[in-house]
Structure formats: structure tokens, C-alpha cells
Amino acid sequence: MKKIINEPSNFVKESIQGLVTSHPDVYSFAEDNENVITRSTKASNKVGIVTGGGSGHLPVFTGYVGEGMLDACAIGSVFASPSVDQIASAIRNGNNGNGVLCIIGNYGGDVMNFEMACEIVAEEGIQTKKLIIADDIASASHEDRLKRRGIAGMIYIFKIAGSLAENGKSLEKVFEITSLANDNIRTLGVALSPCILPEAGKPTFEISNDEIEIGMGIHGEPGIKREKLRKADPLVDDLCKRILDDIKLDNKDKVSIMINSLGSTPLEELYIISKRVNENLSKLKIEIIKSHVGRYATSMEMAGMSITVLKLTDDLEKNLLSNSKCPFWTN
Amino acid sequence: MKKIINEPSNFVKESIQGLVTSHPDVYSFAEDNENVITRSTKASNKVGIVTGGGSGHLPVFTGYVGEGMLDACAIGSVFASPSVDQIASAIRNGNNGNGVLCIIGNYGGDVMNFEMACEIVAEEGIQTKKLIIADDIASASHEDRLKRRGIAGMIYIFKIAGSLAENGKSLEKVFEITSLANDNIRTLGVALSPCILPEAGKPTFEISNDEIEIGMGIHGEPGIKREKLRKADPLVDDLCKRILDDIKLDNKDKVSIMINSLGSTPLEELYIISKRVNENLSKLKIEIIKSHVGRYATSMEMAGMSITVLKLTDDLEKNLLSNSKCPFWTN
Amino acid sequence: MFNKDEMIKIFDELFIQSKIHYNDFNEADGKIGDGDLGITIQNGFQEIVNNKDNFTDDLGHNFMLCSQAFVKKSGSSFGTLIAFCLMNISKSLKGKKLLTHGNIIEIFEICIKTIKERGKTNLGDKTILDTLDFILNKIKEKKDNIKYSEIFKSSTKEALNSFKGKKILIGRARMFEEKTKDFDDPGMLALSKLAEGF
Amino acid sequence: MFNKDEMIKIFDELFIQSKIHYNDFNEADGKIGDGDLGITIQNGFQEIVNNKDNFTDDLGHNFMLCSQAFVKKSGSSFGTLIAFCLMNISKSLKGKKLLTHGNIIEIFEICIKTIKERGKTNLGDKTILDTLDFILNKIKEKKDNIKYSEIFKSSTKEALNSFKGKKILIGRARMFEEKTKDFDDPGMLALSKLAEGF
Ligand SMILES: Nc1ncnc2c1ncn2[C@@H]1O[C@H](COP(=O)(O)OP(=O)(O)O)[C@@H](O)[C@H]1O
Ligand SMILES: Nc1ncnc2c1ncn2[C@@H]1O[C@H](COP(=O)(O)OP(=O)(O)O)[C@@H](O)[C@H]1O
Ligand SMILES: [Mg+2]
Ligand SMILES: [Mg+2]
Ligand SMILES: [Mg+2]
Ligand SMILES: [Mg+2]
Prior knowledge:
The complex is a heterotetramer, with two copies of chain A (331 residues) and two copies of chain C (198 residues).
Chain A: H1 11-22, E1 27-30, E2 33-39, E3 48-55, E4 72-78, H2 84-94, E5 100-104, H3 108-123, E6 128-132, H4 154-166, H5 171-183, E7 185-193, E8 211-214, E9 225-228, H6 232-247, E10 254-261, H7 267-283, E11 287-294, E12 303-312, H8 314-320
Chain C: H1 4-20, H2 22-32, H3 37-50, H4 59-73, H5 77-92, H6 101-119, H7 128-141, H8 148-162, H9 186-194
Helix pairs in contact in C: 1-3, 2-3, 2-9, 3-4, 4-5, 5-6, 6-7, 7-8, 7-9, 8-9
The complex binds adenosine-5'-diphosphate (2 copies) and magnesium ion (4 copies).
């Protein structure tokens, strides 16, 4: 886990500069805040879609700014919330005159700072709604599920909210449909190795060579179970069972799945996992409309992966599959 | 470097099954050979674009099958060449009646097997041309450059060849233009950690915690220099200098660049690198038309990265930026 | 009694304590959370100390600098809550050069109100809110001859002890249910260790 | 003299040698290449041994099985070249149940021709081609009372020794130029070690 970086304290700044420099047709720095990224071509009239959160999860969060996705994003330090003024700037920049949906990952700092920022911009006449993503079934019980953290499932919300807004839906409508989508998403992950925070220079946690941790958070928060590394199939079966116990799908249901690497787990393994998720769902006659396999929400070079299931309605399906322009999303 | 897999001997088979199952709109198994992947919808009339090579490099090779890219691909075991009959099947399946361009990474087994396969299908009346990719400047000197290995730069050829074929160009024309493109590509990489072959279960090479190896091959072949890990900027400057010494660009030139992770090196670091490559080229007034930053040609979970420069002509630029349908390529 | 110089002395001391307990705080947080509490606290105090040359006699102004330091360097829950508290304290103390006993009480009242509001926290959740409540109650009890540093030391420890065996009711810690009874809340632990600096 | 049973015995022995020298071959290859030569050789011979029950009296048929084994299990340069050689030998020996001295010479001539053609290799490049050429020359010299196993052992070693200090001229090894003078070519080394099994 060696890093190709310069000064650790410049890690976030330089990587975001690189992102903007590399894709000038997609991303721009906000004029008023160097920790806010906007689309390079501002949208007009549509509802704004804004998010923000800690760094170290690329493409989450900033990577999903782009046509058909987000309008603006506030960027925190590694694994830390952006500040109120950064978020307020993101909201102002993401606003196209018709209100802004704020998509928040349900981390303490993020939620509090977004709330404060929304109060501030409300005084300036910008209407906002806050959608708190809560897909990680390991982070709270079913009863307490509004308190769950947002992880890879968040990207489904970015896409669907982006599409709805692009299609001219009102803030209320975008909020209503994405809230429904949010209820329809479940994610469960497993971590195999830690990552190293550039400034700390040492692993975020310890795990022995034959162990995995089910449900570990994307910052290395303890999961629900530490166990011996198993073969892919029984592991995937276990994760699928936990997810399906939580969401309850019928054999007429259609879903989209996301098999997400936390960083270093390679595509080959993700596809072995995807194959098995497919087999689990097929057995229950659940139809997979679309599979997303890759690195969508990472913890830098952490090894591990998460499985996300999004239960689709016709409306959600249409918006999930609509066009968008973002280097990290293909349809 | 723990792996989420089943039997190591099923690693390739299961991952390819997962690929096809996950993207049925893009990939299919060839009817006559389970180690050959074709487009799910066969093209008609156009020149066929076919490749093949060892597994463990996803998205290379199979991942680039798709509209506007490859027609078919032969899949070898991890880091090993597909066999003659597999390659012959890929050529047959990739043929749409107008000849086939075979794109080969210049590895001993691949080259010999492709040659033999081309002889076999010639007897059946299928015309082929072989384009040997040779972008890795660490693998042979400038004088000997036709003997260089193909690494990440190969993907530029897939894209450009795919676009030319899609636009109805003849086999001769596709070969001519892609040969030019091939001459215009240079790649240089650096490895930070080994990967583990599923069947061997141990690292492909050893490297200490503060060392990197410049020019290491994508199977762990020794590079041109082992040295202490440096900060990103001087390292990138060094790599850029070596590339630019080899390709000789003028200040009126335009290029595309690819910053490729070998596996576990995360996007954040790739963007820090991309930023610096950009600064190096800007200083020389070389224009970057398009940057590709991500995992394009990997060695499973190896840490490290490569920098590729493709010198563009107007024609190459048009074909590079044309539409295609592939989960691993966005325009 | 409490002026600019006192304030600087206190933050210098808090920074020292945050360095001493850096690993303890991270470890305590790592048991139920993401293990960054030591980083959060040290970064915040370090930034304050780095900016102490900009302190003026106006304590309200100084508290604003402190809030900004935490905003800039410390985006976790703890850091964010502290930043909000410091901002509200700053507003309330604007122009003040010297603090009275009443002001000290006010400071803790503001913190408690802010955390309840911003953190959506209840007393009894086993968080820094409970520790602050213990402190406030002790300060209010006393009428004269008050040794604040003694109160901070003793009541942060009392708070910590009185919650041993109780469940943590906020954040991801909820998932661990019964297990959290055996853990100190990392924030409460941190306040009790930091108080040693007074 | 050389029939089906002899053939099986030889491949059994080669498989044993390939296991004994597995790490040596990988290591030698790792110095200039990808370090898979041990895997390549062992996998190939293992697959042959696994299929020996399908051997018949027709040696040509058996060589085809051997070729297919290398095709299936051994996709590196060495494995591919050996597979091509075995295929061409098979064609040439079709129907033969017993090999004469002339057939043995033929086998090595076929290998040399195949490798030159398929590998685009020249004598002197410091590859298995040179070793095979050494063997061929020795076999041709002898007229009667020929101990093939002795010839294989001695001439593979002679080949190896006579190339010490010379540059490797194929593959990625070219990059290391002068350095390759100090290395044995891994394929030549492998042939000399495998010959110990005869
Ligand atoms: N909503 C809240 N209300 C009160 N205290 C809180 C709240 N959230 C966190 N804390 C305090 O902060 C500590 C955790 O801080 P920190 O590690 O910064 O949080 P995180 O990294 O989870 O954002 C907890 O132990 C608790 O004392
Ligand atoms: N073109 C060639 N002609 C002759 N021998 C070759 C050729 N290529 C490789 N070899 C032999 O094979 C050995 C390397 O085998 P192997 O490790 O299987 O190659 P790779 O892994 O590079 O494909 C070399 O040491 C050499 O003796
Ligand atoms: Mg924490
Ligand atoms: Mg945190
Ligand atoms: Mg090799
Ligand atoms: Mg090889």
C-alpha cells in the first residue's frame, strides 16, 4: 500500500485539480470556493442536485458531477465532512433557480453541516430538500433503518435524481421519487484489508491475513461480524441472504445490482461475485435489469467489495437507464 | 492481497461468465468455443476487429468487445496465451465477411499462436492482417522498438480500429491507419507491489516497502530501474521525460493521454499523476485533447500505474472520440 | 479572571493534551467508529494554536477564530459540533474582554443547546452532551471560591463513570447494542482526558 | 528401441524433473522475464502424464496428445513452441510404433525447423534452439552404440556452458543487454535440468 503522492497535506487538493484538468468538458471549480466542483456547463432551469462529503472515495462524491447527474459537490478532507461554507457554496452553485435537492450520506458531520448550510441559503431564498441516503444494512437494524449510513447505493440516487431533474421534474417530485428509490436500496459490504490515510501514513485498522469483516464501514468502522475468509460463493450467498431478508423481494420484482470494489479488489473478482449474485436472484425469479460492476464508491486502496440491490419501478428503471455524461458511468 | 474467489482453477472461467451475465447486451460466448467472447449482436459487413491474450488484465482484453470496439476476443489462462484453436475461433466469429484485423500484444505465445491461427483461417478464405502493439518503451530500445510489448496503449488501438471498421473502412485502410496510430503511442509504467496468481497463491515478485520499479512489465517482468519511492511529481517528470525523449513531440502537436492504474492504485493518485503529466505537456505547449484516467489495463491487484501518450492526427482524433458501447469506455 | 492570555494558555494546554492522548482517542473511536477522534481533536487544537497570534482582547472574536479552526481542520461529528458550539459562544461573547462566572455558565449552556439542536442528541445518549451537562451542573452549584479546573477534572470523570454499563445511543455505535455497554463513549473519554490539562 | 512404453516412461520422468526444478525454472525466468517457466513446463508434462492412458502404439498419435496437452495448459512462449514442435513431430511419425536412429534425428530436425519458423529465432540467439542444435549435432556424429540419455545430458550442458558470457537476443531479455551475459537462458537451463531425467 505505497502511495504515489506529493505532500500528504496536498493530497485532496491535487487530486481534485487533476480531476478538473483531466476532464475540463465535465468539471469546473466553483468560482467562489476551491473546494466546490460544478459542471463545466451550468444547467438552466432544472432542479439542482448537490452532494458533498469526505475525500478518498472517488468517484464518490465529486466524480458524479455531470450532465444527467449532479450539478455541484462540496469536497471535504479525506474521510471528513466539507464545511458549512463549502456546502453552502455548492448549493448556490448547483442552484439553477428551481431549488436544490441535497443528497447526503448520513455521516454525522455531513448531516449537521448540510443542515446548517440549508438554513443559510434559505435566507438567501434558495429552497432545498435533504435526502439522507441510508443503504448500508450493516450500520443500523431494520427498525432503525433511517439511521443507516449511505454507501454505494448513493450512486443510484445521484443517477435517478439527476435524470428526474434533467427531465424537468419539480423539487417536490424529485424528492418524492428519490425518497422512494432510497427506500428501495440495500447494500452490504465486506472488507479484506485497510487503506492508509495519506496524512496518518498508517492503516485505518488491522485485520489478519485470513480474515474478513462483514459490514465494515467505508472509513473502517467495525462491521457486524469478523470471520475467516471463505470462498466467493458461500460468502456472496450469505451477503445476498442478509440483503434479501432486509428488502423482501417477490418473484415479479425487477432490480438493478451494483457490485462495487472498495479499491484494490479487481474486476475479475467482482465478476465472480456478480455471477453468484445473479444466480442467487435468478433462483428467486427476480429479474436483473442492469448490473453495474466496478469501482463506484471506494476507500482508496482498501480491498473488499459491496453488493447493492435497487428494487426498480418502471419509473425508476427509466431514469436509471437514461443518458448522462460522466466519466464514471456508462449506460 | 486476499482474494474473493472460488477454486483457483475456475478463476478465469467464472470471471468471464460473470462478465457475460452482467452485460448480456454487450457480450456473448461464441457458440463454438467457451474461451471466445463476441459481441452479443453481431455486426454486418464491416471489417472484424479481433484480439486475444492472457487473463488477469481486465478490462483488457475481453472487456473491450462491443459496438465501436472489438468484435471478438480469445481468452487465455491467467497471464498465458490463448491457444491456436481459440484464436482461430475468435477470428471466425469476429469475421463479418470483410476480413479481420488481429490486434496482438507482442507476447511470444500470443504472436506465435495468432500467426498459426491466421494461417489456418486463411485456408478457409478469411483474410487477416496482424497489428502488433508495441507501446511499452521499457521493453526494448528505440532502435528495437518493433519488438516492444503492448500494454495500456493497446486500448487506443482497439478504439481507433473499432471506429474505423464501424465507419466502413477496408481492412487495408484500417490496418494502415492503426499502424500509424501504433507508431504514435508510447507507454511507460511503474510497479509498486506485485499481484498474486490465483493458482500459484504467492506474489509474482518481491519489492520492498520503499521501492518502486520503473518499466516493470504487466506480468512482473523486470523493468529498467529499481529505485526508492519518490514523490509523485519528480517521478512523473522522470517518466514523462523518458516518453517524450522517445516520441519527440512539437509544440503544435496534440495528444491524448491515458493514466492507467495497474489495479490497486486509486483514482485519487491517478489524478495527482494526471495533473502533473498535464503540467509537463503544457510547458511544452502540447495540447491534450482527451485524458483517460482509470483502470484500463491491469495486473489484477498490482499497485502501480502507467502513462500513455498518443500523438493525434485529425483522423486519429475523430476516431478516438467517436461513439462506442462498452462498459469500460466513456467518451 | 478569564482573558485573552488565559485563553491562549488553555488552548496551548489542550493542544498538548491532544497530542499526548492522540492514540488513545483514535483507539477508543476505532472500537465503535472510524478511529479518527484523535486526529479530529489534535488537528482542531493545532490550527487554533497556529492562529493564536491573531487573538485579540475581544474574546468573542477569538472564539470565532477557534470555530473557524475546527471548521477548517476537523470535519467529523465531534469537530463539527465543537465548531458550532464555538461559533455560538463567539456570537454571545462578542466584545467581551473578561469573563464572569455567569459567562462561564453561559458558555456551557450554549454548548448544550447547540449540541441538542445540531446533533439531535438527547441527554442520556452517552455522548459529550452528557459530560457537558455534568460540568454545567457542578459549576452552577458552586457560588464562590470556584476552582474551574478542579470541576472540569472531576465532573468529566464522574460523567464517564456514571455511564459505564450503559448503551451508546447515537451513530453507528447503535449497531453494537449490548457491546457498547462495555465501551466508554470516545467523546466523553476525550473530554475527561483533555480536562487534565486544566 | 523407442516404443509407447518407453515414451510413457520418459514423460513420467520429465514430469518428476519438472516438479523438482519448478522453483529453479521460475526463478531463472524471473530474472529476465515473467517467472512462469516452471509453471509452464510442469503444467505441460502434468497434463501429458494425466493423459497417458490414452496413449496407443501409434507414436504419432501419442505426440499429438502431447502437443494438445501443451496447447491446453501452457500458453507461454516455451509451451507454445513445444506444442508446435510436438504437433509437427506427430504428423511426421504418424503410424510409427517404433523409432529408429533416423527417426530420432528427424525429431530434432523438426524441432529446430519449427522453432526457427514459428519463433523467428536464429541460431546463436541463446535459446532452446541452440541447445537442440547441440543435441542434433551430437546424435548425428554417433554411428553405433548410441546412449541417447548420455548425449542429452552432456550436450544440453555443453550448450548451456558454451553460451555463458553471451547476450540473450530474444524477447524482453534484450532490454538488459550486457546484464544477460551473466544469466543462463531459462529455457536452455530447463532443458539441461530436464535431461537429468533420462
Ligand atoms: N450527534 C451527536 N451528539 C453529541 N455528541 C456526538 C454526536 N455525534 C458524535 N458525538 C460525539 O463525538 C464522538 C465521535 O466523534 P468523531 O470521531 O469525530 O465522529 P465521526 O468520526 O463518527 O464523525 C462521539 O464519541 C460523541 O461523543
Ligand atoms: N522465439 C523463441 N525462440 C526460441 N526459444 C524461445 C523463444 N521464445 C522463448 N523461447 C525460450 O523459452 C524460454 C522462455 O519461456 P517462457 O517463460 O515460457 O516465455 P514467456 O513467459 O516469456 O512467454 C526462453 O528462455 C527461451 O529459451
Ligand atoms: Mg470518528
Ligand atoms: Mg470521522
Ligand atoms: Mg516466462
Ligand atoms: Mg509467460
